[in-house]
Description:
The structure holds two protein chains of two kinds.
Chain A: E1 6-15, E2 18-28, E3 33-37, H1 44-51, E4 59-64, E5 67-68, H2 74-78, E6 81-84, H3 96-101, H4 116-128, H5 144-157, E7 162-166, H6 174-189, E8 193-197, H7 201-207, E9 210-215, E10 218-223, H8 225-228, H9 231-238, E11 242-246, E12 253-257
Parallel strand pairs in A: 3-8, 3-9, 6-7, 7-8
Antiparallel strand pairs in A: 1-2, 1-4, 4-5, 9-10, 11-12
Chain B: H1 3-40, H2 48-56, H3 63-95, H4 107-122, H5 127-148, H6 156-180, H7 182-192, H8 204-220, H9 222-228, H10 232-237, H11 242-264, H12 270-282, H13 286-311, H14 319-337
The structure holds adenosine-5'-triphosphate and magnesium ion.
Amino acid sequence: MTAGPLVVEDATIGYGRVAISEGLSVDIPEGEFTVILGPNACGKSTLLKALARMLKPSAGRVLLDGKDIHSQPTRAVARRLGLLPQSPIAPDGITVADLVARGRYPHQGILKQWSAEDERVVAEAMAATDISELASRGVDELSGGQRQRVWIAMVLAQQTPLLLLDEPTTFLDITHQIEVLDLCAKLHREGRTLVAVLHDLNQAARYATHLIAMRDGEVVAEGAPADIVTADTVQQVFDLPCRIIDDPETGTPLVIPKALASARI
Amino acid sequence: MLDTPRAATEPVARSRTARRVLGLLALVAVLAVLAVLSVAVGSRAMDLGQVWAGLTDAGSDSYPVVTELRLPRTVLGLAAGAALGLAGALMQAMTRNPLADPGLLGVNTGAAAAVVTASFFMGSFGFTGTVVFAFTGAAVASVAVYLIAGAATATPARLALAGAAVTAAGYAYVSAIQLMDAATLDQMRFWSVGSLVNAHVAPMLPVVLLIGGAAAVGVLLARPLNALALGDATATGLGVDPRVLRVAGIAAITVLAGTATAVCGPIVFVGLVVPHVVRAFTGPDQNWVLPYSMLSGAAFLIAADVLGRVIARPAEVQVGIVCAVAGGPFFLYLVSRRKVARL
Ligand SMILES: Nc1ncnc2c1ncn2[C@@H]1O[C@H](COP(=O)(O)OP(=O)(O)OP(=O)(O)O)[C@@H](O)[C@H]1O
Ligand SMILES: [Mg+2]
């Protein structure tokens, strides 16, 4: 198997002197929709930060297209790799269109200011996330779900073949969660490589084409959802006794947590 | 389908841009009027004819007053006001803190500490000497703040804490030296309130060049600062290195505010209030906030200086006092009226 566009090679990642992951190796396969799973605080966001060059490994390397990501100019990386962090900040009073437009930053320069191309890409990104009617609204007056779609539009406007999304479905109701995941699936079908952190195992099993299950900073299991989402792995990763059945809609694995004896009434 | 969003946003965006351009033109006009006033008004008031003669005719009565006193004072006011307005806007953008001002980098106390130290060890020295010591002190203090805040790992919150610590230590030091050595008090009197009265002895060319150069750098930071406004993580994703941006920003702020402070003494509130008011009009886009803050800072400082020359004629009130008296309540009003904008 050839190495994917994003590779973590035997890396130690952490904050200051505290290592969250040691000797971590991860290969993000090209053209796949990879979902990272794992309990709270197991290091999913930390891995994503390392993939997005926000954290520099204290040992080992992160490779983008085969070259150390930290040795490449950061704006060039930003044209290859887009990131939606877990808690982005919107300045007060900014409009939806202006926020989405900021995604164009890596495509502009001192001499290359706002262009018709930028205008078109921003309009497309807003249309794809269904926020076109919100364009002139203030971001601070939107609902959590609308705001999340605005952020996704901002990353889409960056036009990168690789997308890293940290919990893109948090704050969304079930309909909007599915909408965002359908949008991800569409982006994936159009040829982008996606990496997302999700908390819902069933959604992960349904939408991902590649799963990475983590626990305590380590990758516990990795592969196709049908192979990974098993009662054993779920027990091992989440300490959750469960049964697995086939999702009647899609045939993908569906996790049914077991009712604890003590919880039975 | 793609026409819908454009049709929806473009008229709004265009009218907003028109408003911002008009505002900028109005600001330039106000600045021009204020500059003329600043030359005309003083203990000896002039009409426009005398101002013009003073600028152009070396033989006229008004020539010495205009060229030696009022013109340098006006130029210094414009430069220092622009510097403080822009430095404040940069500081607030960089720390994402709407209440930040350049003093937070320790510029004011650094300058004061350097001047008392020099005067304690060397006795009295001329105004240019004061300016050089003050500028050096301001630069040293802001580098110290940056290093204490953790250099490359500095976050907005750590910068604010380090700035507060350095400022407190600096004040204690300045007071201690003054208690030990009464002579420094005299040298320092200028340092308690900002003023433009020393304009005629100030090294004007270096001052204007320093402020001009740093302002050019500062204004170029608008686009990366727009990315930084979305948080360090998003900024990194967009291809901005927040650490590099902070170093560039602190360097520009230090030169801008350090130069203004070195020549005029500490002038508070311009760097705090001006960007605040500007944002209420322009919105959060730094491409507009920075130039607007620069022009508004210049206008505010000149207006305050002219006012200070008028209200207590024939004496004058220092511009630092006028700024504090005018800016303080206005700032309180702003804070109480609308919630302080998060950046
Ligand atoms: N900025 C930081 N500084 C220090 N430690 C951190 C920082 N961010 C996260 N950590 C620690 O790193 C560990 C892993 O955190 P991480 O954010 O990667 O978890 P996660 O798997 O994304 O969890 P969640 O599902 O809750 O988002 C946690 O113990 C956390 O406390
Ligand atoms: Mg997380």
